[in-house]
Specification:
With about 400 residues, the protein is an alpha/beta fold. It has a domain of about 250 residues: 3-Layer(aba) Sandwich (Rossmann fold). The chain contains eleven helices and ten strands. The chain has an eight-stranded mixed sheet, with helices on both faces. A two-stranded parallel sheet has the order 4-5. Strand 1 and strand 2 form a beta hairpin. It starts with about 35 loop residues before the first strand and ends with a helix.
């Protein structure tokens, strides 16, 4: 006789197995997404994508003169949902809702804001988890992308929406890479540039941090060479993706903040010294890993991380200084003083290279994540840039 039959209360069900992919799939709730089919795209490193679709969201209205469009570029594991609550189709709330909206720094009563899910992403745009022309997920067949390829797709989206010139291109972290590349690739099509916690080129240090993350994903047996999308829940590369997130999240925060917040405290109820338990900071990192594997795709993580490694605005343009000198946009560069992933010196290089650019250094204990957390300081800079 079972325990339940003897009158015992059954144990509550455990947490659901991690999905094979946390990306958006056809048939899932659409939410606030729209879709643009942009046709084939030739790729910088060779080859092409036969058909590109970008998922995107918009706020405000395009003016009759089509001169008020603002492109917002998201970071590595974000998506097009810049503003709005979590809900069907959107696993997380808007990531910059304090900056974009009626009466805010990027005022949607004035500006037409466009936010695409990046090419290679997993929230509705063409990427490793989306269907290839044969109807099966791209998986390992998905081609290598560069930041310039992503910018080319976003430029095609602008054309499809009738945007003749971006009134501004805005982005932080990986989104800032794309924003800078937009301004250097198409100087006559970008009026303002807001580049936050980013760089003109991926450094050896950044590539090194990415290398361990890529290795973690690829070492997971569930990776299956990138062709895991037909596996059962719990059998995908969630362990490798979670480990990659733990490494990445460590670089997103400052050493001082982690020490002040956690110190050497044990996770409540656990004994890390000889007892097999965890320190509180370990539990914190695991929490963020567990969240990511339920809303992101490991293949997209690999493709986008490699694209970040490709970032070099000076490639084929005579170097960084020559490339930045091409930019004609009115530019503000924002750095976070405790950012150990994209240090202030890289923002200074960017600001010094763009004619007339201004550098703002935001004080924050939160490291790189300050570009998401210090919304009041960043809104002040954005308000000044967008006020004219």
């Amino acid at each position: 006789m079972s325990g339940a039959a003897r009158g015992q209360v059954p144990a509550p069900p455990g947490p659901a197995l991690p999905p094979v992919s946390g990306g958006w799939r056809e048939g899932d709730p659409v939410g606030d997404r729209r879709f643009a089919d942009l046709g084939p795209l030739a790729l910088e490193a060779g080859g092409s994508l036969p058909a590109v679709r970008l998922a995107y969201e918009t706020w405000g209205r395009l003016s009759p003169e089509r001169d008020n469009a603002v492109l917002v570029c998201h970071a590595l594991t974000a998506d097009s949902h810049v503003v709005g609550p979590a809900g069907p189709g959107h696993p997380t709330p808007g990531w910059w809702s304090e900056l974009v909206g009626p009466g805010l720094a990027i005022d949607t009563d004035r500006w037409f804001v466009v936010a695409p899910n990046v090419l290679g992403g997993c929230q509705g745009s063409t990427g490793p988890s989306s269907a290839a022309p044969d109807g099966r997920p791209w998986g390992s067949r998905f081609p290598y992308l560069t930041i310039r390829d992503q910018v080319a797709a976003e430029s095609a989206l602008g054309e499809a929406l009738g945007v003749r010139r971006w009134a501004a291109v805005v982005g932080g972290s990986m989104g800032g890479m794309r924003a800078v590349e937009h301004a250097a690739s198409h100087p006559d099509q970008v009026e303002r540039l807001l580049a936050v916690a980013t760089t003109a080129r991926a450094t050896a240090d950044q590539i090194a941090w990415c290398a361990s993350q890529l290795a973690a994903v690829r070492a997971d047996p569930g990776w299956a060479g990138g062709d895991y999308h037909g596996a059962d829940p719990g059998e995908g590369p969630h362990r490798g993706l979670g480990l990659a997130r733990m490494v990445a999240h460590t670089t997103y925060r400052s050493a001082a903040e982690l020490d002040a917040r956690f110190g050497r405290s044990a996770q409540p109820g656990e004994q890390p010294l000889g007892g097999g338990g965890r320190f509180a900071v370990e539990s914190y990192l695991q929490h963020h890993a567990d969240k990511l594997v339920r809303r992101f795709d490991a293949g997209s993580y690999v493709v986008l991380t490699e694209a970040m490694n490709s970032h070099d605005v000076g490639r084929g343009r005579g170097g960084t200084a020559a490339a930045l000198a091409r930019v004609t946009a009115r530019t503000r560069v924002v750095a976070v003083d405790t950012d150990r992933l994209y240090p202030v010196a890289l923002s200074q290089e960017l600001a010094e290279g763009v004619p007339g650019a201004e550098l703002d250094v935001v004080a924050s204990p939160y490291g790189h994540d300050g570009f998401l957390i210090e919304s009041e300081a960043i809104a002040k800079v954005a308000g000044e840039l967008f006020g004219g």
